[in-house]
Amino acid sequence: MFTVVPLFLLFGSLQFGAAEAEPNPPHSLDMITLNTNYTLTWDWDQSSVGSDPVTFTVQYTGNHQLKKKTPRWNTACRETTGRSCDLTGFNLHYLGLYMLRVQANVNGSHSVWEYKQFCPDKEAAIGPPSKVRLSAAVAALDIVITDPQTSSNSSMRDLLKLSFQICYWEQSEDGKVLNHETFITESNMPTLSNLTPWTQYCVRVQSRYEYYNKTSSFTPPQCIQTEGVVPWWKIFLYFLSSLLLCFLVVLVFIYGGHQCFQFCKATLFPGEKLPSPLKHHEIDYPCLLVSDSELDLCDPVIICVESAILENNVDPAADSTGPPVGLGQDSSGRHSRQNSSSSGDSGVYSAGGNSGALQHNIASTFPDVKRHFDSEQLKMLSMKSDFKVCPVIPDEGVVDMEV
Questions:
Q1: I want to staple 134 with a disulfide (CB 3.0 to 4.6 A). Which of 108, 150, 224, 305 is the partner?
Q2: Cβ contact 198:228 at 8 Å
Q3: DSSP code for 138
Q4: At what angle do helices 367-383 and 355-365 cross, to 10 degrees?
Q5: If you count DSSP H runs as helices and E runs as strands, how many of each does the chain have, helices first?
Q6: Do you know which Pfam families this protein is assigned to (predicted)?
């Protein structure tokens, strides 16, 4: 008896020490879900172990594995210091049933497992439509709804039967809500008809899963104005505005093209101007200005009227009767000799002393020739008064002969 009592006391003290060393298990297990995104969270009392560090291990298995003697548990998070574990990446089937468990670890000691059953189809929250677009029509609105998306960017409609609850109302200018209406549809492209034309309407949409009566939050309100029949005066005003705009565009294009052309022309082909020494303001045709020293080096210039002018202006009747009055025997003979020569004679009369009488007779007989001759002299004299006119040298190499 004496020996048995100490052994009993020793065994009891060892059991009590082991019970004290085991940490408390986690508690308040909960799932934060949205569509197919799942996160397990829990709480734990840190005061039970003081300042000792604590970690947690999370495992999961299918509910059908619990019927086996040794279920196969899959570790989702190992020795994590946080109070949550993300299960999204483990592809838990949306229509499956799973068992989750969490264990606390303190200085090599492990707590008992804390369990939680999870069915995504029943417990996972459903999200609102990923996108809503409005399009205005005549007294109507067209709505385009994009389904909620899974974690793999596929439609939630592939996993459950979706429907949408649509709320819409008129938005007055002062911000008041008028004529609030609601309806449920399974279509992704519903139309709100029989609306008031040229009126501001606001729309928000909610996802629904009728089997488990799950609903999502509403999308932010979107507002748009309905259209109506455009009056004729607006059409006419738009037409005039378009014509005016086209006219202005063409005018600017023409003016800009002209200015660009003038600029390019002035740049690439500048106007040539005579230098100031070559300008002559008294006459309207260009002339060569020379100095007195250059004139002294020039030969004398004789200016005479061509014989072709005289021949073209001679009256045939007067020519048949004989030489004009005032022409002597010498002048007629010389005239005949000059007309008969074909060796390159220039046909210009240079009869020495008889030239004065010849000019007088030509002037009296052919007034047109005189005027032409005078005008030619005036032009030549006006070009430069410094030209030297040499006296007519008598033709000494010509011998007068009578026939």
A1: 224
A2: yes
A3: B
A4: 120
A5: 9, 16
A6: Interfer-bind, Tissue_fac
CATH assignment at residue 219? 2.60.40.10
**How close are the terminal C-alpha atoms of the chain, in Å?**
202
- The answer on 139 and 109 residing in a single domain is no
Answer whether 66's CB lies under 8 Å from 117's CB.
no
Token pair belonging to 379: 């032009």
Q: Is 102 exposed, middle or buried (0-12, 13-18, 19+ CB in 10 A)?
A: buried
Which amino acid is it at 113? W
What's the pLDDT tens digit per position in 140-190? 999 999 999 999 999 999 999 999 999 999 988 887 888 899 999 999 999
Q: Is 348 left (phi over 0), alpha (psi -120 to 50) or beta?
A: beta
Q: Which residue has the tokens 């969270």?
A: 41
Instruction: Give the DSSP letter of residue 290.
Output: -
Instruction: Provide the residue range defining the domain that includes 182.
Output: 131-225
What span, in angstroms and rounded, lies between the C-alpha atoms of 285 and 275? 15
**DSSP code for 396:** T
Residue 170 to residue 138: CA distance in whole angstroms: 16
Q: Which H helix or E strand runs over 312?
A: helix 307-313
User: What digits encode the pLDDT tens for the residues 214-243?
Assistant: 999 999 999 999 998 877 888 889 899 999
Domain count, the chain: 3
